[in-house]
Write a structure and sequence with these properties.
425 residues, mainly alpha, 19 helices, extended, 2 strands
């Protein structure tokens, strides 16, 4: 029986090695997810090794407790308002710059970001920069769908299951051999196993019906999961970030200068579309703001693009006749079958822009933050509480219902039936 004992010892050693590498792989996955989240939510204000709008984050895992960091990243302004001494001190040390709340991040997301910061902080600067660029390409699913880690986990389960099947088949074959040939056959069996080639073992494995059946079942499960993931992500453009003709920075305008979103996107509170502002809105400020300090006295190249499109001469403040529109590339696209009205969400429901567009005030270049899938919208509708107090829309509905109770005549116009958006998309 010595060969069986040696075999089980090798099985245990192999399982220990698999678990060790599996744990390391999961840790790497957390850091990879954290890299992608860091690129989306943190990079515009923070760097690992230098101070930007916010402080350098290298070593933050050692400077602060994990529980405190979770609360701070979720809602820093609330912690400052509550009088938390550490939060107030950090606020004062950073020239009273408020950190943007990140309620959209789960506790797991934040822990992944912290894992990424810790991992990258321990690397040399060049290696950290390379890893950060690679992490930006990682894709995660915030819509609750099948993500890459689920597929990797499924592959790991399949490999472990195959290993267990091989081990059990080997043990069963050994025991059957001993039962048939008697206890004296152990040495002979060991010699036969030693002399057998890898090709022979493979031939036996191929002829094993249990192994073939289990392999087919696992292959079907794996291919189904891959296919479902592909179908789930069809038409989902989360993270889409096209190159725009002008590098307009929301971080500078909405973040640093705190310009209200609806100053430029005036249609958001009164129409279906938020609308892209015309260049005359830009000129309200850029008649005077030309940003020449960083360009050796020359006008900023991006502002010059506005002047060129308007055929505007900043020296004479005169407009020419050769004007042309800026061809912006639309980022947020819904399918034709979907109807979304900005005014209904902004004016009636009072939803902030960040609910759908993410931390727009931190984006140097805008990208699609949310998946914009049907499930994502439905989940929001399930969670969002309707505030009907002092709301003209719901006041009209209540008045209409009161008339119905009394048996009075109700027309479609009383229920918003003559609004433009009811017929015109």
């Amino acid at each position: 029986m010595r060969s069986i004992s040696l075999f089980f010892r090798s099985v245990v050693q192999s399982l220990v090695i698999i678990c060790f590498f599996g744990i390391n792989t999961l840790m790497a996955q957390d850091a990879t997810e954290g890299a992608a989240l860091f690129q989306k939510n943190c990079k515009s204000c923070h760097a690992l090794d230098r101070k930007m709008t916010g402080p350098a984050l290298k070593g933050v895992n050692e400077r602060r407790e994990e529980a405190w960091l979770l609360k701070w990243i979720k809602n820093a302004p609330a912690m400052i308002a509550s009088g938390d001494p550490t939060a107030v001190q950090l606020y004062n040390e950073n020239n009273k710059m408020l950190m943007t709340p990140m309620p959209m991040l789960t506790e797991g997301n934040i822990l992944s970001i912290l894992a990424y910061i810790k991992t990258e902080g321990e690397k040399p600067l060049a290696a950290a920069a390379t890893s950060s660029a690679a992490g930006a390409a990682a894709v995660t699913s915030s819509d609750g769908g099948i993500n890459t880690y689920m597929i990797i986990g499924l592959i790991a389960v399949i490999l472990i299951a195959l290993f267990i099947i091989l081990a059990l088949n080997r043990v069963i074959a050994t025991l059957e051999k001993l039962l048939i040939d008697g206890p004296d056959a152990e040495l002979e069996l060991l010699e036969v196993q030693t002399e057998s080639s890898g090709l022979s073992n493979f031939n036996h494995l191929v002829k094993n019906k249990k192994f073939i059946f289990f392999t087919i079942i696992l292959s079907v499960i794996f291919l189904s999961a891959v296919g479902l993931k592909g179908m789930w992500n069809t038409g989902v453009h989360q993270g889409y970030q096209p190159v725009q003709p002008i590098k307009f920075s929301h971080q500078l305008h909405a973040g640093l200068n705190q310009i209200n979103c609806q100053y430029c996107h005036s249609g958001a509170f009164k129409s279906k579309n938020a609308s892209i502002p015309s260049l005359n809105v830009c000129m309200n400020c850029h008649n005077y703001v030309q940003a020449t300090e960083k360009y050796n006295g020359e006008i900023s190249p991006e502002i010059q693009k506005i002047y060129t499109a308007l055929d505007y001469d900043p020296k004479t403040s005169q407009y020419g006749a050769n004007q042309r529109p800026v061809e912006w590339i639309r980022i947020h696209n819904l399918p034709d079958l979907a109807y979304f009205n900005h005014s209904q969400h902004v004016s009636v429901a009072g939803i902030e822009c960040q609910k759908c567009h993410g931390p727009i005030e931190t984006m140097a270049e805008v990208y699609q933050y949310s998946p914009l899938t049907m499930k994502w919208c439905i989940n929001c509708h399930k969670e969002t509480e309707v505030n009907h107090k002092d709301n003209a829309y719901y006041d009209d509905l209540i008045a209409a219902h009161e008339k119905l109770k009394k048996g009075d005549k109700i027309t479609a116009s009383l229920l918003g039936g003559i609004e433009c958006g009811k017929c015109h998309y």
